[in-house]
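Show me a record, fold above all:
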Amino acid sequence: MIVATPKALAAWYKSVRTTKGLTQTEVADRCLMTQKQISEFENGKLNVTMSTLFRLLNAVQLNINLVEFKTNSDGRGQ
């Protein structure tokens, strides 16, 4: 899946977490965070550091695969 915005990342993360049958509390315990912080992250209300993002991804057994995107003539991505 290609995720291009923080909101899309949060929605995708929640989808993966629930598909795997994990509760917010279980993820929070794995990340040394609170359930409230997981909820805020999934609802786009909490900006996290890169290190926290990696902990969140690890908690649901995901990783990041960077993909270069093409740009338009005006320099914006497609």
Residues 6-19 form the longest helix (14 residues). The mean pLDDT is 91. The two ends are 15 Å apart (CA to CA). The CA atoms of residues 16 and 44 lie 16 Å apart.
